[in-house]
Fold Inhibitor of sigma-G Gin.
Amino acid sequence: MCRNGAGGVKEEKLQCFICNHQDSSGIALLNAFICNRCERKIANTNPNHIKYNLFKEKIKLLWAKGLQL
Ligand SMILES: [Zn+2]
């Protein structure tokens, strides 16, 4: 039987710190959350691609944020 109602197990949606999209699946990096799509994007981004630098900057900010805590 499938129980479906308030108070049941619900998937927590977290906000992706890269795209700000709310998703329940992804990875948690330090105190931030990266959704599946962005995680894949990062993994598939060619290091020579300009977007890679954007992600890198974001990650750097994230690490800096984490180190402050
Ligand atoms: Zn995202």
About this structure: Residues 14-68 form one domain.
